[in-house]
């Protein structure tokens, strides 16, 4: 009876901790909101509402002329090509760095329980390189590369490749290090090379997770290629930038619909691959 009364009086035994955590989070978040000048109430201002209505009213009906849709088909294919080519180049760079950065693939650590100095230096250097590459967003890489190679898809492909080498290499190494290492260690103990241990030992144990993350990154690359189009890296983004400058809301709305369909298709591909590997 006493326990029931206490439970009725305090339905959540951890309420004090939850309230304290909420107050601490609010205390830490409030200065950040001030620094970021976050003022959502400006959206409800009469002038803002009028501008929003004027902007959104131009969306309907969406542009659907044959000439425009053919142009969008070409831009969509270019966007997919930029994302896929960039991710492919990123894989070519990330796999070797993953071999160097993954601790569970160290032969010296397996044999003696301690990594050799040269191996530790190389491993740390690979990890620092991955940090450097993923620290610079693909949009910044695109801005730099447009100055070097000029306007067009090449800058977008290289920007995605450079950033995603760092992202893929880091996450691949973490996935491999956290997966079941028995098969990998057995192969290395019996004289197998790192590449063979990776393909026949580590990959089968973590293939589904690796494929899931890779397809997720492909979806992110599609989104990123659209954003990079605004700095002249080609694809739908560049066409959208042109349409927005001309205040062609109907064309922008059609591109947004295409963009949503692209991401949905990428999600379907990811789901299909995960089911095949399950």
Task: Describe it.
This protein is an all-alpha fold and 278 residues long. It has 2 domains: 50 residues, no CATH class; 212 residues, MetI-like (MetI-like fold). It is built from 12 helices and no strands. Helix 4 crosses helix 8 and helix 10 runs antiparallel to helix 12. It is globular.
List the defining traits of the structure above.
12 helices, 278 residues, 80% helix
SSE layout:
Elements lengths: L1 H8 L5 H21 L10 H12 L8 H36 L5 H6 L4 H19 L2 H12 L3 H26 L3 H8 L4 H35 L6 H11 L3 H29 L1
Overall morphology:
globular
CATH architecture of the largest domain: Orthogonal Bundle
Radius of gyration, CA atoms, in whole angstroms: 25 Å
Low-confidence stretches: none
Give me a quick take on this structure:
The protein has helices at about 1-10, 15-35, 45-55, 65-100, 105-110, 115-135, 140-150, 155-180, 180-190, 195-230, 235-245, 250-275. By secondary structure, it is an all-alpha fold. The model has no long low-confidence stretch (mean pLDDT about 80).
């Amino acid at each position: 009876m006493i326990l029931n009364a206490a439970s009725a009086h305090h339905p959540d035994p951890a309420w004090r901790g939850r309230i304290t955590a909420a107050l601490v989070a609010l205390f830490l978040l409030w200065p950040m909101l001030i620094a970021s000048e976050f003022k959502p109430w400006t959206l409800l201002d009469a002038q803002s509402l009028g501008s929003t209505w004027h902007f959104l009213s131009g969306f309907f009906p969406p542009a659907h002329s044959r000439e425009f849709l053919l142009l969008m088909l070409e831009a969509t294919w270019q966007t997919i090509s930029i994302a896929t080519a960039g991710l492919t180049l990123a894989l070519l760079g990330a796999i070797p760095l993953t071999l160097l950065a993954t601790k569970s693939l160290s032969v010296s650590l397996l044999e003696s329980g301690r990594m050799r100095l040269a191996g530790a230096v190389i491993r740390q250097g690979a990890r620092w390189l991955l940090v450097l590459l993923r620290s610079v967003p693909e949009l910044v890489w695109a801005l730099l590369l447009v100055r070097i190679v000029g306007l067009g898809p090449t800058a977008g492909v290289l920007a995605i490749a450079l950033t995603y080498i760092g992202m893929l290499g880091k996450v691949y190494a973490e996935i491999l290090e956290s997966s079941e290492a028995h098969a990998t260690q057995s192969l290395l103990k019996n004289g197998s090379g790192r590449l063979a241990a990776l393909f026949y030992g580590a990959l089968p144990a973590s293939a589904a997770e690796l494929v899931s993350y890779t397809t997720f990154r492909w979806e992110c690359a599609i989104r990123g290629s659209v954003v990079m189009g605004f700095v002249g890296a080609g694809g739908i983004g560049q066409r959208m930038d042109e349409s927005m400058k001309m205040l062609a809301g109907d064309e922008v709305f059609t591109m947004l619909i295409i963009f949503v369909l692209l991401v949905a298709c990428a999600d379907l591909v990811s789901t299909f691959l995960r089911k095949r590997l399950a």
